Amino acid sequence: MERKKNNPLISQEINGLYQLKINGVISQEEFDVKKKDLLDNS
Questions:
Q1: Cα Rg for the chain, rounded, in angstroms?
Q2: Mean pLDDT over residues 15-20, rounded?
Q3: Nearby residues of 14 by Cβ (< 8 Å), 6 or more positions away
Q4: Rounded to a whole number, what is the largest CA-CA distance in the chain?
Q5: Res 7: pLDDT
Q6: Where do the SHOCT domain residues begin and end (predicted)?
Q7: d(Cα 6, Cα 20) in Å, to the nearest integer?
Q8: Share of the chain above pLDDT 90, in %
Q9: Shortest CA distance to 34 belongs to which of 8, 20, 14, 19?
Q10: Does residue 5 surpass a pLDDT of 70?
């Protein structure tokens, strides 16, 4: 159901967020919220 084109910049941002989550810099909840914001704004 994903109609948006896969934006490499968005993927890069999400990868960055994922690294922060893995390193314990942000919580899973923060990760989800930020990821949703990125996807909504793309």
A1: 11
A2: 98
A3: 35, 38
A4: 32
A5: 81
A6: 16-39
A7: 22
A8: 71
A9: 14
A10: no
Q: What SS3 state is found at 12?
A: helix
Would you say how long the chain is, in residues? 42
Listed in sequence order, the DSSP H helices in the chain are 8-22, 28-41
**Tokens matching residue 34:** 């930020």
Cα–Cα distance for residue pair 16/25, rounded to 1 Å? 11
Q: What whole-number distance in Å separates Cα of residue 42 and Cα of residue 39?
A: 5
pLDDT at 2 over 60: no
Task: Please tell me what DSSP assigns to residue 38.
Answer: H
Share of the chain above pLDDT 70, in %: 86
Residue 19 vs residues 3, 5, 6, 8, 33: alpha-carbon distances, Å: 26, 23, 20, 16, 15
